[in-house]
Amino acid sequence: MTKNRKALKQQKLSAAKQLTSGLKTVSADMIGELLGKVIASGNKVCIEGDNQKQADFLSQALLELAPDEINNLHMLISTIGLPEQLDIFDMGLASKIDLAYAGPQGFRMARMLREKQIEVGNIHTYNELYARYFMDLRPDVCLLCGVEADSDGNIYMNGSAEDSSAIVEATAFQQGIVVVQVNRIVDKVRRVDIPADWVDFVVESPRHKFHLEPLFTRDPAQITESMVLMGMMTMKGIYAKYLPRTLNHGVGFNTAAIELMLPTYGEELGLKGKALTNWVLNPHPTMIPAIEEGWVESIIPPGSELGMEKYVEANPDIFPIGADGSLRSSRLFAQLAGHYSADIFVGASLQIDALGNSSTVTSERMTGYGGAPNFGCDAGGRRHTSDAWLQAGQEYTGGGLPRGRKLVVQIVETFQQGMKETFVENLDALQLAADATFPLPPIMIYGEDVSHIVTEEGIANLLLCRTLEEREQAIRGVAGYTKVGMKRDKKVVADLRSRGIIQRPEDLGISKLRATRDMLSARNIKDLVRWSDGLYNPPSRFRNW
Amino acid sequence: MKFKISQSYLEATARQRIGFIVDKGSFKEIAPPSEKPASPHLDMFNIPKSFGDGVIIGEAEINGRPVSILAQEGKFMGGAFGEVHSARITGLLRRSLNTKPDAVVCLWDSGGVRLQEANAGEIGVTEIMGAIFDLKATGIPVIAAVGGSCGCFGGAGIITGCCDYVIASEEARIGISGPEVIETTMGVDAFDSRDRALVWRTTGGKNRYLFGFVKELVENCPEEFRSAICSAMAKSFKYSLKNLEAMQEHLQERADKFGSMDNTFDIWKEMGFNSPEAIPEMTVAELKSTVQAGGEK
To answer: Which of B5, B207, B220, B263 to mutate to test the interface with A (most CBs of A within 10 A)?
Structure first.
C-alpha cells in the first residue's frame, strides 16, 4: 500500500472534490461525507489535539463514519482530550492508537486498557511522536484546527499553533490529506501560518471556537506555605548557586510559587539579570510580576494561554510575535529549545521511588508523558557550554574529562492531599505496565537524570552522590515521614548532610518563619490582573470578582 | 505595572482579624482555647476538634470605645455553626445585653450549619438570631463584617441579614443556598457553580452592595475593614416595626422589578449602569464613584 501513497491520495481527492464541486471549502453539514471519502480502512489518522487545543469539530465528525465501511483506523493523537476520540474505539472505527498524553481522558484510557478495548502502540514524548510522523507513523490523513482560513486554504493559527507545524509538514509532504477546521472562513487571513498549497480541505466549525483549556493558569490563592518554603530553598540552594540563565518550569503550583517570588525573594538574593533570563514556558499568568519587574529577556512558548493574549501581544520583545501582532507558538521548537538549550528544568511529580525514578501514572489513571521527559533529561547531544551546565557537570563527574550536565530538579511535598505519600518503594507505573503488558513501564523521569530533589525537608543533591546507595539515602533523607523516609539510615544521612549533599532549610540559612504567603508578589488572580495593568483577562472560572 | 500587595483580610485567621480590628492590647478573650471548649459530637465522626469550636469571642475596645467582638474561623469546618460554636456566640450576645457595649462586632465567615450536628446547629442559629433582635431592641448596634473565604451562606447568610449594618469586601459571598446547592437542585443551566465569575457577580460583595444589603463595600484590606467598623459605630440604627414594614415593601418592589431577570448584568443595566459588564473589573473606589455619578443604587 505504501507504494501507492501518491495514487491513493489522488483517488481520494478526486472522489472528495466531486462532493465539494472542486472547492477546498466544505460546508459543515457535509463534513462526515467528506471524511468518508478521504479516510480509508487501516489509515493512519492524525487528529490535532494537545493538552490545550483540540480539533473538536473534526473529532466529532468522525463519529458519522460507518464502521462497516471504514474500520481499523490507527489514530495518532498527541493528547487525547475529548471523549469522541475514545468513542471511535467503542464504535469499532479505530483499533490502535499512538499517543503522548491522555490527561483529561486518563481514567477512561486506563479502563479501556484493562478491558482490552484499545490497542496502544506506544506512549511517547511530544517530539518523539512528531519524529515518528516522519518515519514509521506517516499520517494518511490529518485533521487540524485553526482560527481562520481563506477560500484558497491559507490558515491562520494564532498563538495556539502548538502541534500544527509538525503534523502538517509530516502529512502534506508525504502524500497525506490535510483537513482543517477553522473558527471562521474569511476573505483574507490575519497571517499565513500554513500556506494554502499544503491544505486540501477547510471547514468552518459551527461553534466558531475550538476547544481550548487554560492549562497553565495557577491561582496564587492556592499556594501554600510549604510551597513557599520549597520555592525559597530552590531559589537559594539551586538558582543562586548555579545561576542558570536558560530554564523551563513545569505547570505545577510549586514552580508557580517560584515565579511569584522572583520580584520578592529573588530580588533579595540578587538574582535579577544574573540568572533566569531566557525561558521555555507557556505564557504563565504567574510570570506577569517577574516580566513587569524586568527579569525576563525571552520566553519561547510551546503553546498559548487563554486570557494572556493581550498581555503577550504587548510584550513583543519577550514573546514571539508575528508581523500581524499576535503570538506564534510551536511545541516542536519549544521542546527542542527545552531539551538542548535549557540549563535547568524544574518540575514536580506524583510518585518518586527511592532511586529518584518518577511517574505521574497511578493505577487508575493513565496519563502519558507529554513533554516532561524531553525537558527533564540530560541532553546527551548537547555541545554548547554555559557556566551553570559546566558547574553541574563538574559536580557530577568530580573531575576528569570536562563534561556538562543539565540540572533537573523535582520539587515535591513528601505528602500530597489525603495523606498520600509522594515517595514510594514501588511506582504504580510498574503495575500498570504489567497489567497492560507494556514492555516499558511509563517512567516520566529516570533517577539518573535527576540532579536535585527538593521537599519541605530539604534539598538532596544527587549529582554529588557517588554510589547508588548514596543516592538512595539522599532521597530517603529528604522523604520526611513517608515510609520511604522512615527507612533512612540515620548515620549515612548525617554524613550526607555534613558533605552538603543533603541541605536542610537551616543549612541554607533560610528561616522557616519567613516562608509565608507574604513572600508572593501576587496573592490571587486579581492581583495578576492589576500587575498586568488590566491586559490579562482571566477566564471566568478563575475569577472571584 | 508595579503593584504592591497588601495584607489580606480574606487570608487572615480569625485571631489575626480580631487583631486587625480592635485597639492594640485591648482584647480580653472569653473561654479561650486554654479552657479547651470543644464540640462533643465530632469524635464519633473521627473529625479533629478545635478548642474554641471555630469561633473566638471576647471584649475589646475600638478607638477606645468598648465592644463585644466575635470572629468565626472559616478554616475550621468552614466556620460552621455547631452546638458549642453557637452557644459561645449566643453567650457573648446575651452577655452584651448586660454589659451594654457601644457595639457588638461580628466577623462572620461561615458556610452555615455544621452537618454533623445539624439539629443543635439549627437551634443555635435561631438562638443567635433571637439574641441579635434583643440587642437591637435594646439599642445596641450589631455590626457584621464579611470578608472570609467561606462568605456567609445558609444560617450565616440569614444571621448576617439580621444585623444592623453589613460591611463586606468584593471577595465575600453572601447568600442562603450556596452555588453548589443551587446547581444540584436547579440544574447546571440554572446556575453553573464552577463559573466563578458568575458566582461572584451574583453572590459577591459588589452585587450585595448594589442591592443595598451590604451597606459598606471595602477592599480586601484589614485597615479598610477597621475604618468601616469605626464609621459604622458613629451611626445610629433604628429598629422599629415601621422600618421593618418599609423594608418589606422595598423587598416586594425589588422582587417585582428584577424577579424575572436571570442575569446580574441585566439587573445592573436596569439599575441604571450603562456598561454593567465593566462593574466586576472596577475597584471599590471606582464603583462608588460610578454609583455617585448617576448609576442608581
So the answer is: B5
Residue A1, pLDDT above cutoff 70: no
Of A517, A530, A531, the CB nearest to B11: A517
Under 8 Å CB-to-CB from A501, ≥6 apart: which residues?
Answer: A460, A461, A464, A465, A470, A474
Give the E-state strand segments of A85-232 in sequence order: 94-101, 119-123, 141-149, 155-156, 177-185, 201-204, 211-212
| Minimum distance, in Å, between the CA of residue A545 and any CA atom of chain B | 5
Q: Is A295 on the interface with B (CB under 8 A)?
A: no
| Cell numbers standing for residue B99 | 454589659
* The three three-digit cell numbers of residue B204, written as one number: 459577591
Contact B5 A292 (CB under 8 A): no
Triad B102, B103, B108: Cα angle to 5°: 165
The label of the residue with cell 527579569 reads: A295
A540 to chain B, any CB pair closer than 8 A? The answer is yes
Determine the Cα–Cα distance for residues B193 and B181; give it in Å rounded to an integer: 9
The separation between CA B172 and the C-alpha centre of its own chain, rounded to angstroms, equals 8
Q: Which CATH architecture has domain A2-212?
A: 3-Layer(aba) Sandwich (3.40)
Which residues of chain B are within 8 Å of residue A527 when distances are taken between CB atoms? Answer: 3, 5
User: Domain boundaries in chain A?
Assistant: 2-212, 214-343+523-534, 348-363+372-503
Where b means 16+ CB within 10 Å and e means fewer, B75-112 reads bbbbbbbbbbbbbbbbebbebbeeeebbbbbbbbbbbb
Amino acid at A463: L
Between CA B297 and CA B283 the distance in angstroms is 16
> Hey, what CATH class is B14-237 in?
alpha beta
The region of weakest confidence among A7-16, A21-30, A89-98, A436-445 is A436-445
B1 → closest Cβ in A292, A543, A544? A292
> Cell triple for residue A315?
510584550
Question: Which pTM value belongs to this model?
Answer: 0.89
DSSP helix/strand/coil, A348: coil
Residues 6+ positions from A445 with CB-CB distance below 8 Å: A347, A349, A357, A358, A372, A373, A376, A377, A408, A410
Among residues of chain A, what percentage have pLDDT more than 70?
99
Find where cell 444571621 sits.
B159
Buried b (16+ CB within 10 A) or exposed e, A202-216: bbbbeeeebbbbbbb
Kindly report the nearest CA distance between residue B7 and chain A, in angstroms.
8
Q: Which of A443, A481, A485 is nearest to A460 (CA)?
A: A485
Degrees, nearest 5: CA angle A318-A322-A325: 85
Tens of pLDDT along A470-518?
999 999 999 999 999 999 999 999 999 999 999 999 999 999 999 999 9
**Which of B1, B10, B149, B171 to mutate: most A Cβ within 10 Å?**
B1
Tens digits of residue pLDDT in B54-95: 999 999 999 999 999 999 999 999 999 999 999 999 999 999
Residue A444 touches partner B, C-beta closer than 8 Å: no
Residue-range domain boundaries for chain B: 14-237, 240-297
Domain A348-363+372-503 has CATH 3.10.260: no
Show the cell assigned to B242. Answer: 415601621
Please give the helix or strand (H or E) that residue B191 lies within, else none: none
Q: Do A541 and B200 touch (CB under 8 A)?
A: no
Determine contact: A530 vs chain B, CB below 8 A. Answer: yes
